Every structure is written in structure tokens, then in C-alpha cells.
Amino acid sequence: MKLIVKVFPEITIKSPPVRKKFIRQLGKNIRTVLRGLDADIVVGGVWDNLEVETRLTDPKVLQGIRDRLSCMPGIANFLQVAEYPLGDMDDVVAKCKLHYADLLPGTMFSVRCKRAGRHDFSSMDVEKYVGSQLRMQCGAAGIELKKPDLVVRMEIRDQRLFVVHDQHKGMGGYPLGALEQTLVLMSGGFDSTVAAYQIMRRGLMAHFCFFNLGGRAHELGVMEVAHFIWKKYGSSQRVLFVSVPFEEVLGEILQKVDNSHMGVVLKRMMLRAASAVADRLEIDVLVTGEAISQVASQTLPNLSLIDAATDKLVLRPLVATHKQDIVDLATEIGTADFARHMPEYCGVISVNPKTNAKRNRVEYEEQQFDMAILEQALERAKLVSIDRVIDDLSRNIDIEEVSQALAGQVIIDIRHPDAQEDQPLQVPGVEIQTLPFYALNSRFKALDDTRQYLLYCDKGVMSRLHAHHLLSEGHANVRVYRPS
Asked: Residues 168-189: what's their mean pLDDT?
């Protein structure tokens, strides 16, 4: 399979050195992301196109390559093509017939040709001649330039002909690694996950910073969704997941700060802590998922007060976005199901919160706060590479594993729905239920507690983590299923 990758149009208007830098970075990213599917993947080309070629023929691998390219920042679209040496016009017609002859009968079609290099013909010459010949030779109903039923696409570069038989949309944006780094404040809900996606889509590297207010289960949930976003959209770069234990900070606020100002003070403490983490990582930009007036702490006066707690630039990609649009985008990018089962803690601590807090009052409330508690939280912060975050969580967890399921036991497939659909789990004679990992903790208590449940995932990592959590919650009827 051969693909021609078209870069994000804004890259093509950069100066030659910048353009070359961005395209070189994109090529490097493509190799990094696709190497896991094909160790011999070939990536070449310069200027405004890159060519990607694999000799593998496994349909699942080829689909995996297309899926990964469609989720890679920097790519406007990519074409699946067949390459031939450039012959005369009749040879071009013959090559187009190989791919379009069966599709043309009875259709209104057009021909589109893009050309680069020196030739004694123009792109329009190719379109006119090939179009007329295909109409006569393939039984097409006619040629329609404005709204054709079918478009015959090709590209001619120097002495090479590329017949296009499929086109796929990319993410756009700039290649990760070509722009600056950011630190995204992650709660795991709709807003922060979509904000992280928007930042990555534009081409900014996103490290993740989580303030743990809800214990082990909350931390695990946020780690899972952060890993999902990175794996799907940003795995060309290695980034960090930072977890800051914030329960004691929240406790101090609940004891010392007036109820009406708790939300603003908590957000200011988070920005202070995030700034300290960013300094440690040499990052100058913080990212949050806040939108104007979505909650009381997100009014313009309160956002201004919150930003005053840091000298870092605070980006809010969703600042003027409606909530339903955020939810719709979360559904599109795959984070909505995570968010629906993620506890939200920041918005529940204030009763009758101030929507127009005053600086002197906020500063007075913060004077009651023991800043040593914030420093202690930062000292206990954990930094781990995002590609190791799930594996590290599962270390030193002693969970009973079984290689065979017995009659009467229930296997729960906790993989992501995409994996469940691509490779359905089949164990003859044993009941199998599908319950994605992000919904397991909230739904497990509704299951029949008289039965034995075996959790299953591909590598056994997620199943061990969730089995450990369920056991710690008092569910003794949980094991891990690891078929031999």
C-alpha cells in the first residue's frame, strides 16, 4: 500500500526553512507511530507531500496504518494511490481504467489531475483527454464537473503517475514536536479531555497534570483517559503524567476558607501547583478546559482572579465553546464515555459561590490557608512517562489469575468497545459480558453478587488494576482471566 500524505495548508505558507523543519518533523512522527505496525515502513518526500509505503498486505495492519495517520497532527489528508511510470496519454487512460472501469458505467463523472514537473501538456489537457476516453470506453452516462457522482483523481509528478483510489481526512494542525510544550490540567471530564485534544491537534505537546481529590479510583480513571488521548493522538512524542495529591489541600480549604470563595481559591491553588510543576519541566504554558460562565468560578472576573495566581500563560481552548459542542466533540474523539463515568470534585465544594469575587477578599481568605500543605502536596507529586503509566500502576498488585474459566463463572471483557468489536472474545460454554473499563467501577455493584466474575483485557494490566480496586471496595468475587 502506498499513501501520499498532504501536509496542513498553513505549513505550506511558511518560510522555506520553517516549512522544511515542520515537514521533517512530520516524517519523523509518522515513522515513530507506524513502526509498531511495520518495522520496515518507508517514509520519504519533501516540501508539501510525504510518501508512505508498506509491503505488508494484512488488512488489519493496513487499516491500522490509515487509522493512525488520520489521528496525527500535521496531516490535512492522505491519498491511497497506485504508482506507475508515466507513459503517454493512452497509457494514463489504461491505468485509470484498472481502478475505475467497474465504477464508471451509468455514472456522471469528472477527472481531476494535479501535476508537478515539466511536461508538454497541462493538467487540463490530461483531464479532457482521459475524461473523453473513459466516457467512450467505460459506458459512463456523461461528464459532470460541478456535482459528479464519481471523481477520477490522479497526480503526475515528473515521470511518475499516481492513480488515487481513496482519500482520507487528517487532523490538520502542526506536527507534534515542532512547537512548544504545554501542561494540561486534567480532571478527566468532558472539558479537560477536549481541551487536551484541541491543544494537541494544533501541534502543541501536552503533558498531563492531575490534582487527585478522589483517591485511587479517581486517579486511575484520569490516568486511563490521559493514556487514551496520548495513545490515539500524540504517541509520536513521549510526555509525562503528573499526579499531585490534593486531598489535604482541599481539606484545608474546607476548614479555613469561606464557603462562597472555595471554588476560586481551589482553582488558584491548582494554578500555583501547576506552575511549580511546569517550572520543574521547563514549560511556560498551562492549559485548562474552562469555558466562560459554565460554572461560578469561570465567570470573567473570577477567571481573571484565578489567572493572577500564576505568571504563566494560561490557555483555554474551550473558552467560548458551548457545553453541548464540547460533549459532541468528546464523543467524536472517543473520550465521552470516560468522562461520563469520571467523578467531578471541583464544582461541588461551594454553596452560593461568588460569581464576582474581589481580589482583596480572595487574598484575605488565602491568608488563612497554610501554604506548607501545598508545598507538601508538591513534594509528594508523582511524575511518570505516559507510556508507562498503566504498567506502573499495576506493579506490586497481588491478584489471583486463572487461565481457564469454569462453568457458572462470568467473564467480563473490559476492553475498549473498538477492541471488543475488532476481536470479540469467545470462550465456549462460558458466559461473556462486555463492560468497558471506564464503566466497570460504577456498574459492577449492580451485578449479581452471588456469581464469580473474571476480568479480561489483552495484556492483563487493566484487568489487574480494576480487579484490585474492586477487591479493595469489598467485592470478593473478582479474579483476572488470563487464557494460556
From this structure: 95
Say if CB 22 and CB 11 are below 8 A apart: yes
Q: 195 and 330 in contact (C-beta within 8 Å)?
A: no
Mapped onto helix, strand or coil, the DSSP state of residue 276 is helix
234 is known to lie in a ligand binding site: no
Q: According to the annotation, is 185 in a ligand binding site?
A: yes
Residue 298 in marked binding region: yes
CB count within 10 Å of CB 212 equals 21
**CATH at residue 28:** 3.30.2130.30
* Mean pLDDT value of segment 338-354: 69
Reply yes or no on whether 457 is catalytic. yes
- 63 with 157, same domain: the answer is yes
Catalytic residue among 71, 113, 209, 457: 457
CA 269 to chain centre: 28
Q: Is the same domain home to 90 and 237? A: no
Where does residue 71 rank: exposed (0-12), middle (13-18), buried (19+ CB within 10 A)? buried
- Shared domain for 253 and 301, answered yes or no, is yes
Give the strands of the sheet with 49-53, arranged side by side. Answer: 42-44, 49-53, 2-7, 75-85, 160-172, 150-157, 108-116, 142-143
**Total structural domains within the chain:** 3
Residue with cell 500524505: 5
pLDDT given for residue 101 in this prediction: 95
Sheet containing 410-413: give its strands across: 401-402, 478-481, 453-456, 410-413, 431-434
pLDDT at 347: 45
- pLDDT tens-place string over residues 259-317: 889 999 999 999 999 999 999 999 999 999 999 999 888 999 999 999 999 999 999 99
Of 334, 354, 389, the domain-final residue: 389
The 10 Å Cβ neighbour count of residue 276 is 16
Half-sphere exposure of 297 (CA within 13 A, CB side): 23
Residue 231 is assigned to a ligand binding site: no
Amino acid present at 200:
M
- 484 domain-assigned: no
pTM recorded for the entire structure = 0.84
Cβ atoms of 307 and 222 closer than 8 Å: no
Q: Which domain holds residue 327?
A: 179-389
Instruction: Answer yes or no: is 382 a known binding residue.
Output: no
